[in-house]
Amino acid sequence: MEFSENAIVEKKKFASKLYEFWIRNSLVSKKAKPGQFVILRITERGERIPLTIVDTRPGEFRLVVKAVGKSTFELCMKEEGYVLSDVVGPLGKPSDVRNYGNVLVLGGGVGIAAVLPIAKALKKEGNKLTVILGARTVDELILRDEFSFCDELLLATDDGSLGIKGTVVDAMRKLLKEKKFDVAWAIGPGVMMKFASYVAKEHNLPIWVSLNSIMIDGTGMCGGCRITLKNGNVNKIEYTCVDGPEFDGRFVDWDVFINRLTLYREQERLALEKFLAEVGDVSWL
Questions:
Q1: Mean pLDDT across the stretch 101-126?
Q2: Residues 102-210, CATH architecture
């Protein structure tokens, strides 16, 4: 079957409200590098959604999406063959992948998908790779079989249904008592990245985090994705879309970042309630 540009080529369900998509787009598939993202719209009047590129293959790129708000619910309801209104990317700076030595990689929830291409690239550069993956339950511990290339893989679930009972940060604390690393990556929910960064700072360990800020144009013009970096008494404003999305978490002002993520929470809640009232039962999603 021939698919149009920006069409959903494949769709796979991982868990409740958690899906994988392969999207047809020749430019993104050709140019994307680990750590970059796209911004897409489902319809012409839809919200612009930033999503990390998980993988590429000739003519197509891969996304993993969790339905949490109106637009991601709408996307997860679309089927193979649906053509997205537009896709812009790849955007952002690629991850700084090179041979560091011993590297620690943490992925939490949907962040497991985002950190996968970075981990692959780090291993290709000859790094010794220790990976910790975590989620609330075993059902949400996605893509773990795709990390078979790493030197050591640790799993954690909040409910203890697989691996260590606890979070990736819990596992990180224990591991850093036993081993020394040259650099770390941590991608997942904001709170997870915040506390992973605090632990890394205690050990003077550089740690790259990918910040999923509120974003509109993705080119640095709107200012919506601005973050504050603190180094001593010096505060610096940068923009996730053009200066990131990755920053050394030791210097991120996490309170400012997480507060900004909640700016439109009430509007987002109302939009989702209205959408769900219109579409009806989505228990199957």
A1: 96
A2: 3-Layer(aba) Sandwich (3.40)
3-state SS string over 129-142?
EEEEEEECCHHHCC
CATH topology of domain 8-91: Elongation Factor Tu (Ef-tu); domain 3 (2.40.30)
The tokens for 18 are 């958690």
Q: Contact, 163 vs 184, CB < 8 A?
A: no
* 67-102 pLDDT tens trace: 999 999 999 999 999 999 999 989 999 999 999 999
Domain regions of the chain by residue span: 8-91, 102-210
CB atoms within 10 A of CB 258: 15
Closest CA to 229 of 262, 254, 198, 208: 254
Q: What is the model's pLDDT at position 235?
A: 86
